[in-house]
Amino acid sequence: MTIKDTPEEWEIRGTRTPFTGNKTSVRTDDVVMPDGTVVHRDYQVHPGSVAVLALDDADRVLVLRQYRHPVRHKLWEIPAGLLDVPGENPLHAAQRELYEEAHVKAEDWRVLTDVYTTPGGCDEAVRIFLARGLSEAEGARFEVEHEEADMELARVPAEELVRGVLAGDLHNNCLAVGVLALVTARAGDGLDALRPAQAPWPARPFEA
C-alpha cells in the first residue's frame, strides 16, 4: 500500500452559502454518502495561506506573539498570511508576509511542508516555507494595525520551540508543524533535500 493522500470528490446534490465574510465564507453541501444517503456538510471556504519558518545562522527561529480572538490566547507563531488573490504565487506571498510582519528578507527558500489545517471543517491549505540567509529588509517598515499592532517579535532556538510544542506550551498549528518538520528533515536527507520553493502545490495551483 502506498501511503499518500489522493484527490477524490463525492457527488454533491446541492450547495448554498449561508454566510459570506470579508475573507472567508461558510458553505453547505448536500453530499451523497457511499450507501446512497445524502447528508449536509458545513465548512469554511478559505483562500489558502502561507507560513514561513525563518531560520537564522544561530539556529534560531523568528517568531511573533499575537492575540487570537477565537481561542482567547496570545499565541507564539511563525510569520503567516493569506493568499491575497486566487492563483497567487505562494512564494511571493510568503516573502511579503516575512517583510510585513518582521521586516526581514531571506536568500534561500524551500518548501518545508504542505498541510490542510482543519480538513473536517475548513478547506484551508497552508504551504509552510523554510527561509534561510536572513537579513534586514530595505525601506520603511510596513504599517501594521489591529491585532498586529500589539505583536512581539523574538528569535528562539529551534530546539526550545520543539520542547515547547511537545510540552503543550505552544499551540499554533504552523509553528508546531514547522519546527517538527524542520527537525525531521534534518534527521533525514537534510534541509537541502527539501522541495524547491516553486514546487507544484495541487491544493492551490499557481504559475511559477
From TrEMBL:
Keywords: Hydrolase. The keyword Coiled coil does not apply. It holds the Pfam family NUDIX. GO terms for molecular function: hydrolase activity. Residues 44-183 form the Nudix hydrolase domain. Gene3D superfamilies: Nucleoside Triphosphate Pyrophosphohydrolase (3.90.79.10). PANTHER family: ADP-RIBOSE PYROPHOSPHATASE, UDP/ADP-SUGAR PYROPHOSPHATASE. This is NUDIX hydrolase. It comes from Streptomyces pimonensis.
